[in-house]
Amino acid sequence: MNAHVRTALVSTAGHCKVACGFCFRADRAHGFLDTATYARLLSRLKEAGVEGVCLTGGEPTHHPRLRQLIRLAHQFGISVSMVTSARTVGEVVTLSEVAHLLANVTVSADSQGAMLLGRTTRTATSGLDTLRAISAETEILHVTCWDLRDGECQELAGLVSEAGVEVQFSPVVLDERALRREGKSVQDYLVQHHLDADRLDRYFNLSDRYRAYLGEVKDLQFPPDGGERWPCRSATAYVSADGSIRRCPYGQASVSVHAPRAAIRHFLTAPAQDRVTPDCAAICRPATGSDDRSASCAAPA
Q1: CA 263, CA 143: separation in Å to the nearest integer?
Q2: Element (DSSP H or E) covering residue 244
Q3: Could you read off the pLDDT of 62-94 as tens digits, one per residue?
Q4: How far apart are CA 141 and CA 160, in angstroms?
């Protein structure tokens, strides 16, 4: 069943200094999203019934006209959220100046194993420091997990409880090239997902959808009946910094924001042409109900 697109993940910049080794974005380049392109995008999204946009990166706090991006969306009656890795003084100051305009702010962090794997420094502690420095309607710490330890989970549970913020988790997703680089088999990779989920479940109340997601990833890697992968079910479109609209960051089918409005509306409302892969499943938000806003890969604890 095709999901009607309700939200859009918008890349505000084609580059990011963090450069995570497991970044999901398939279109990294230089340059920022042009405001004229963005305004045209908002108009077309509104016509297609899209209700909200989430500004992502690269790093959205680096966009020179970030406040204008948010204000433009509000003028179209579209709510705005943000996913950020803001840690530096300048990034946090920029974020704090617009946080009150956002429906929610999600600050990305990585477990110790994920930081080693992805060569990042996005600790949960520094992410919580960023959230303490801002004031948003909803504040979320999102932790990408790999090779968790009990002590780390216990410490994180205490930090999150003290900070009073929502926490979400997702497993590291590695493509075939990354698995070869790390010298790991697909089976090793899937086993680690379940070991990490078991540890998380000792300290956080993982949702059933998190476990269901891990089952989906396994089925994508090893189809139980050898059948064809299912069509994209995402209710969130993806827009690259150059104005290319896709149903998924990894999708092959796309339409330009400069295409005729009828073509854009058809693309957003017609059945998706892409099929789910292990990569895109990591960020998929299947529409299971009108009030279901949590991703199966980012289950709230």
Answers
A1: 37
A2: strand 244-246
A3: 999 999 999 999 999 999 999 999 999 999 999
A4: 8
